[in-house]
Amino acid sequence: MSQTEIHHDHHDAEGSKIGMWIFLFTEMFLFGGLFLVYAVFRNRYSEDFHHAAYELNAFIGALNTVVLLVSSMTVAMSITAVLKKQKKLALFLIAVTLLLAFVFMVNKYFEWSHKFEYKLYPGSEVMKNMPQGELLFFSLYYMMTGLHALHVFVGMVLLTINFVKVRNGSVNPERISLLENSGLYWHLVDLIWIFLFPLLYLIT
């Protein structure tokens, strides 16, 4: 490989990382706006928000927090494993991360299903008859956790792509930017949930 080609590869890797950081900042602005809206309405309807939060299962929220924290650790470890040329370990760690993400989604499915059984979902008669503050709380709950779940799903797709590319050697110590960028994205998913959990489940 010529010096020019090496420089070109390095430039692409740096450019992709910068692009990912820019994308992550836009995502932070998106969720930051939702957090701001939440803070305004929580201040205005504090009693209703507090009452509505009792409908949420804090144990499931805490469990999902632990699941995502561990998954952030395993995805970071997978990057280290690739850099150390420990391919089998890297594949195992990515697989564990995917498994943890699946556990998160399953928990979220059961959490939402439980509320749907009681007709507690956007547009239902139960929500329409709620006090204004409780209606706003659950509307924000579904919007923020639903948007977060979508990000988890996208992260799972990225990790699956990385699993395939690590296995076939496309992602390796010399070409690891895809896995690094996916890891950054996954850490953002984790960070957002760390904010969502106390805001929604631990209102005092």
Content-based structural category: mainly alpha
**SSE string:** HHHHHHH
CATH superfamily grouping: Cytochrome c oxidase, subunit III, four-helix bundle
Tell me, briefly, the overall form. elongated
Named at the architecture level, the CATH assignment is Up-down Bundle
Instruction: Tell me what portion of residues adopts beta-strand conformation.
Output: under 5%
Number of helices: 7
- Quote the distance from N terminus to C terminus: 61 Å
- The level of helicity is over 70%
The largest pleated sheet is described as:
none
Overall pLDDT level: 89
Structural Rg: 20 Å
Q: Would you identify the regions where 5 or more consecutive residues have pLDDT less than 50?
A: 1-11
| CATH top level label | Mainly Alpha
What is the total tally of β strands? 0
The overall number of domains is 1
Would you give the CATH topology?
Four Helix Bundle (Hemerythrin (Met), subunit A)
